[in-house]
Amino acid sequence: MAAVSESSVAYPIPNDESTPTASTAARPRHVGPNIFPNFPVFTRLIGYAAQGEAVAIDDRTYNIKASYSQLLTDVLHVRNVLYGTLSADVLNRLWANEEVYFNLLAPASYEYAVAFLAILAIGGIIVPLSPALPEQEALYYVKTSRAVVMLSSTKNASSGRNIARAVSSTFNPGYQSIDIAPLIGRPPLRAADMLVSCDHFLDYHGAGLVIFTSGTTGPPKGALRRRSFIDGQATRIADLYALNRGDRVMHILPVHHATGIGTTFLPFLLSGACVEFHSSGFDPVKVWEHWRAKRLTYFSGVPTMYMRMMAHYETVLKNLPPHVAESYVAGARHFRQLLCGTSALPRPLADKWKALMGGRRILERYGTTEFSGAFTIPPGDKECPDGSVGKVMVGTDVKLSEGDQGEILVKSPFMFTKYIFDQAATEAAFDSEGYYRSGDIARKRGDYYFIMGRASVDILKSGGYKISALDVEREILGLDYVSEVMVVGVEDEEFGQRVAAAIVLKPDTINSLSLDRLRHELRSRLASYKNPTMLRVVPELRKTVTGKVVKKALKTELFPPNGHPDVQIWRTQTRPRL
């Protein structure tokens, strides 16, 4: 792509609520190469830049450290290059405040942060894509979002060009991929030289971000968030955890999902803290070593990560000489908070971490792609019962469909507005009162909520009983030889559904597991109707990039309708009367 001279760029004359009146029409608009649109995010970031050269982004994978001044300088340059690259038609749509979608293909990295903010600064809608997507699969997301351009990171530059070539030759001739790497690293501007427009405003409630659903229950849908999510949700999380400029978060989550964006990236960046990106893959050995250095104050993970971290601690670290083992424990206890989301943290695992952390628990929360927060455990809450995901977040309207139990129904200030270009799916997502139907089942005890699972896969009906798969999984994980478990309902003529368990055994424990042994050891933990009647021992359970087990697909793979020789089945026996 040819270099663009910023002096030749035609900056926008926005058609927004600040369009000049007769008394101001003769005034020149306040736009230019060093001027950001008027939006709280940019005002706040420039303020941090003015306070010194503290590191905003520490990209450990690509060895880039950038101050807030450097970050904003690069954001302006990428925004300006976009102005000089996009067609007149696209620019006119942006200037008319129409919804214009931009794909972002990048891992958690400095390049991602720059591109994310640059798309925001041009008034576009950010559509982050997984950098692990096969090129053919990526075409689905590009086509669904109807994006005009793709911004691609160093890691994904080649894939970006291939995808752009396929898109431009089929359904969007003007689509192209722009490499981010050549556009960053500009000489940093002084904070005083970066301005916020007095008359070019971004609509706070306009469309700002699309996050695709995980696709575990159907084709992924693009959930559209307002720009208020980018600022307001980040501020709400920052206030909840009292984030400040002295904080440093280890960011190891995907940045095309709600948690990686709305919990681990934006709240820390907009608090003046340091976001430390790690995108080379999760390795519990390396993470423990990094924790041991005691430079971090926050870590946000998913249950699979905490499970692997605890396994490494129990099998390796705690068997080291006492003073060495204690240094790792001290590293974990140095955190202000450990956070967990995307799915429930199994209680046996939560208890182990609570003991290791000296009585402090991992703070869980509950949200979805469509609304990022409904329940959370506030820091310092000593009344929260074990197994609970906390109380309703302030400002959020939540009810359960059957009173103190049932489907979680939500109205949230920062929830999604629609599934893009899918009116039928959008209408089906809400009930007659305008509550979003989450599809998840919970129960309430006092002010605290407990997740029972997803209605479609986690609520089993066996022998006339309604059973939470998560309750059964929790007890199975309490067995010392179980590493991972998935419980599903398998259709059956006798029971309606059988309680079926797929189990991954811990290494160096037992070589095999019979269904009889499993049922015997669960007898004191579970009611008889909850005890598994099918078992399959497997080497692993396939998961999404956010660590969720893909139950819907695995159910038919591991427990096929025609049976499988590795599946053990418990049969009821009718004994003759004597």
Structure description:
It is a single chain. With 578 residues, the protein is α/β, with parallel strands linked by helices. Strands 3-2-12-11-13-14-15-16-17 form a 9-stranded mixed β-sheet. Helices cover 29% and strands 24% of the residues. The chain is globular, with a radius of gyration of 26 Å. The longest helix is centred in the N-terminal third of the chain and has 18 residues. It folds into 3 domains: 132 residues, Rossmann fold; 220 residues, 3-Layer(aba) Sandwich (Rossmann fold), CATH 3.40.50.12780; 111 residues, GMP Synthetase, Chain A, domain 3 (2-Layer Sandwich).
User: What would the principal axes of the Cα set say about the shape?
Assistant: globular
Overall structural domain count: 3
| Main structural class | alpha/beta
pLDDT below 50 for ≥5 consecutive residues: which ranges? 1-5, 17-22, 574-578
| N→C terminal distance | 89 Å
Give a short account of the largest sheet.
9 strands, mixed
Strand order, sheet with most strands? 3-2-12-11-13-14-15-16-17
Write down how many β-strands occur, each being a DSSP E stretch of 2 or more residues: 28
Q: Tell me the CATH architecture of the largest domain.
A: 3-Layer(aba) Sandwich
CATH class value of the largest domain? Alpha Beta
Report Rg.
26 Å
Percent of residues in β-strands: 15-25%
CATH topology grouping of the largest domain: Rossmann fold
Q: Summarize the amount of helix as a percent range.
A: 25-40%
- Given the structure, what is the number of helices? 17
Average per-residue pLDDT, rounded, comes to 91
InterPro entries: AMP-bd_C (IPR025110), AMP-bd_C_sf (IPR045851), AMP-binding_CS (IPR020845), AMP-dep_synth/lig_dom (IPR000873), ANL_N_sf (IPR042099)
GO molecular function: medium-chain fatty acid-CoA ligase activity
Protein name: Acyl-CoA synthetase family member 3, mitochondrial
Domain AMP-binding enzyme C-terminal: 472-548
